[in-house]
Amino acid sequence: MKPPERSKEKAESRVRGKLVETAADLFYRHGIENVGINEVIERSGVARMSLYYHFKSKDDLILAVLDHAAEIRLTGLEESVGEGKDPGSRLLGAFRSLKGIVEAEGFRGCAFINAATERADPGDPIHGRVARYKSALREVFASLAKEAGAAQADLLAWQLLILWDGAVTEAYIQQRPDLVDAAVSAAETLIRSSLPPAGSGR
Q1: End-to-end distance of the chain based on CA atoms, in angstroms?
Q2: 97 falls in which pLDDT band (50, 70, 90)?
Q3: Domains of the chain (ranges, CATH numbers)
Q4: Which has the closest alpha carbon to 183: 81, 83, 102?
Q5: How far is residue 155's CA from residue 190's CA, in Å, rounded to a whole number?
Q6: What's the mean per-residue pLDDT of the chain?
Q7: pLDDT digits (tens, 9 = 90+) for 152-169
Q8: Is the pTM of this model over 0.85?
């Protein structure tokens, strides 16, 4: 029999998870400024007191949603790059994973860019949380680029991040998931030109 404390913690974790998942869906579909706490409460079926037990404010809930989304996205990216046989192919694998993102039902661009646009002040904690995620994404690219022997790994990482965000944004604006193919092609050219020639010994 589970101790009462553990059962309570598990139940609270489920409630918190339900609130985050419900808010994530609503924020992504309608925008963080267009969704109120009452709508999150109604859609999740969680009591108001329970919401404020876990989150002191709407901004706290938004930050939790962004953290949750970042964990999912970075975990998915790690799985995608892990399928490559070498660092270069793993970098390219990251871009191939974009196809699944832009073709997903209900896709409406990058949730992080959307949030940063709504909270445009760089001093806003939500804007800062988006920047932290983007830095983590760039670090994934930089780590693989360095492992592959890129002469300017940090520059390549920035170029790939810009290309990544541009692909996601344009795929949504133009409603053309196939534009990711152009991003994959561009990423392949960038990566190939940045890595040492095969057999160079580097």
Answers
A1: 58
A2: confident
A3: 1-56 (1.10.10.60), 59-194 (1.10.357.10)
A4: 102
A5: 11
A6: 91
A7: 999 999 999 999 999 999
A8: yes
